[in-house]
Each structure stands twice: as structure tokens, then as C-alpha cells.
Design goal:
The protein is 69% helix and 2% strand. The protein has 344 residues and is an all-alpha fold. It has one domain (3-335). The chain has a two-stranded antiparallel sheet with strand order 1-2. β1 and β2 form a beta hairpin.
């Protein structure tokens, strides 16, 4: 198979999703990296992140027997009717929301329509995605709250008191390594949101094991496209979405970024091992940040409690706004286009 042989709508959907997913989710994996390294040239940060993306893609392809999505598409085979305009529309909406700095869940916005219109074998996938994502939010909220309740009085106050000082090379190295770990875990989760548009072969073995295979051409096209699109995201320093990170407590400090990255990466790793059902990394990130901000405001008094509660509430409202848009698009648009109500 060549790229020329892939449906035009599939290529358009892939490119829209590739840019929108990376740009919208930059606050999760690369937001603290960008903010805490604001004085460094953007292209240095881009080359570092791009090299990790290439490594993860190639590693995933050859260790997962051709499955770039790391098993996240096992229950979402390629659309039986091919890629239709209503599959691409959510990715276009995501691009629009990204431009306005709204941090919606890319997993729900992009994958919901595939889960509801995918035909036999995809029934109930949306419910499983919602359950896993909601559990991820709660786990991250509790973990972030607990850890920062224990350390905020000393750790967060120390960072606030010493911020602006020249960082030891050890902190810089640790932050770049923690970013690599988190970026790796995020890519393993969210590649599904991008490669869901590309043709693939799904097979089920006699023991029930499901496997997915992508053509090598798809892998190469994906790498080149995402690396180029990432360059624009890095050159714009994350865009408007980045403001969500900058509004949080001490997120421009390398030491604070290390802890956030390690906790977030660890939670994603655990949930990746639990099941192959796609989940919203945005929900996990927002849960972690919510627990962190509330604990810091109540223990370290580095921001007012009312301000922290209001900030967390607004972030949660944005998530539900994105979820509502996802479900409305996934149900209403295919229904209008085909006359058939998608099955839950």
C-alpha cells in the first residue's frame, strides 16, 4: 500500500487529528517542559521531543508486530464503510477548539464517532472509555492531592522561595528525562486518536487475542507528518492552550515540573497496562492538576483557596463541555447523514 492509495478523507482526518491532538494535549505532556525551558530556543526543544516521537513510533511498530497504536485500537477496527465526512468532522472541531485554547478530551472528541459507528465489535466501547477515563480522573485527583498534602508545606514553599535562581545541571537533566518518560507514555496512549483514520488489518486469534497491523508506509507518513506539525506547535510555544499551565502554581520551575511529569507518566503507565481500552489522558492530567492545586492552596497558602477552587471548577467545566460536544457529534451527525441511529 502507498499513501496515494489511502482515501483522501482518511488523510485529511489523520492530518487534522495529528495537529489538533498534539497541539491540544501539549499542555499535558510538554506544557511544563515548554514553560520551564522558555529561555531555550524552540527548535532545541522540538528536536528533543521529535526524536522521542520517532523512537516511540518505530519501537511500537516493531515490538507490537505492526501496531503503531500500542493496542489501543484493538476494539476499534477500521470503519466498515471507510472514512466518511462525519468521521473527519470531530477532528476539524478539535482544531477549532484548539485555536481558542479550550482543553477538551481528544480521545472522546475523535474516537467517540468511531466507537458508535464502527459496526460489529464496537458496541459498548464508548461506555468503557468513559468508565476508564473517569476512574483515571479520580485516581489522579486523589494521588495529586495526597502527595501534595504531604509535601506542599515544605516542597512547594521551598520552590516558591527559591524560584528564579540558577538551576543545577542535575535538575535540568532530571527534568528532560522525566519529560521523555511522560512523552513516551502519552504517545502510547494517544497514538490511537491519530492513527484511527488510517487503514489497518484487525485479526482475532483462536484464543481470542486481537492484533492490529499497519502498513510500514503509514508509519513513515505518520512520523514525517507529526514531526513537521510539532515544529509549528513548538515555534508558537504551545499556543493558547499553554495558558492553562502558566496559570498554575510554580509550573515554570523545573523542579515542580519534574514531579508533575513523573506522577502523570506513572498513572498513564499503570492504566496502559490495565487494559487496551482507549482513555482520556486529558482527564487524567486535569485530575492530577486539580488535586495538586487544591492541596497547595490549602497547605502552602501560595494562592487563595477560592481562586484554586474556581480554577479547578473551570477546567472541569471545559472537560464536560468537550464530552458533550463529542457525544452530540458522534450521535447526531451520522444519524443525519445515514438516517440510522448509532448503537451504544
Amino acid at each position: 500500500m502507498t499513501i496515494a492509495g489511502i482515501e483522501l478523507l482518511a488523510l485529511i482526518g489523520f492530518l487534522l487529528a495529528a495537529y489538533s491532538v498534539v497541539a491540544n494535549d501539549a499542555i499535558q505532556t510538554l506544557g511544563t517542559f515548554l514553560s520551564s525551558n522558555a529561555k531555550r530556543p524552540w527548535w532545541v526543544l522540538w528536536l528533543y521531543a521529535a526524536s522521542i516521537l520517532v523512537a516511540v513510533t518505530v519501537y511500537g511498530y516493531y515490538t507490537q508486530d505492526g501496531d503503531i497504536a500500542f493496542g489501543r485500537l484493538n476494539q476499534l477496527p477500521y470503519s466498515e464503510v471507510g472514512i466518511q465526512w462525519y468521521h473527519v468532522l470531530p477532528a476539524a472541531v478539535l482544531l477549532f477548539l484548539t485555536r481558542f485554547g479550550i482543553p477538551v478530551s481528544t480521545t472522546f472528541l475523535v474516537l467517540t464517532v468511531f466507537a458508535l459507528t464502527g459496526g460489529v465489535g464496537t458496541e459498548g466501547v464508548l461506555g468503557k472509555m468513559l468508565t476508564k477515563s473517569a476512574l483515571g480522573y479520580v485516581v489522579a485527583l486523589v494521588a495529586g492531592g495526597f502527595v501534595y498534602l504531604c509535601i506542599a508545606r515544605v516542597w512547594s514553599r521551598w520552590i516558591d522561595r527559591t524560584k528564579g535562581q540558577r538551576m543545577h545541571i542535575g535538575w535540568v537533566t532530571a527534568q528532560w528525562l522525566s519529560t521523555a518518560f511522560l512523552w513516551w507514555q502519552w504517545l502510547a496512549q494517544d497514538f490511537a486518536n491519530i492513527f484511527v483514520f488510517m487503514p489497518r488489518v484487525t485479526t482475532t486469534a483462536a484464543d481470542g487475542t486481537v492484533s492490529v497491523y499497519f502498513d510500514p508506509t503509514v508509519m513513515i507518513f505518520g512520523i514525517v507528518s507529526m514531526v513537521i506539525l510539532m515544529a509549528y506547535v513548538f515555534a508558537s510555544r504551545g499556543g493558547k492552550i499553554q495558558k492553562i499551565i502558566l496559570n498554575k502554581t510554580n509550573t515554570t520551575d523545573i523542579r515542580a515540573a519534574i514531579l508533575v511529569d513523573l506522577m502523570f507518566g506513572a498513572i498513564l503507565f499503570i492504566f496502559k497496562e490495565i487494559s487496551d481500552i482507549p482513555m482520556s489522558t486529558t482527564w487524567v492530567f486535569m485530575g492530577l492538576i486539580a488535586g495538586r492545586e487544591l492541596a497547595i492552596s490549602y497547605i502552602a497558602d501560595l494562592r487563595s483557596r477560592s481562586e484554586a477552587v474556581r480554577d479547578v471548577s473551570m477546567d472541569m467545566a471545559r472537560l464536560f463541555f468537550g464530552l458533550i460536544i463529542s457525544i452530540v457529534l458522534a450521535v447526531a451527525v451520522p444519524w443525519i447523514a445515514t438516517g440510522n441511529m448509532p448503537s451504544f
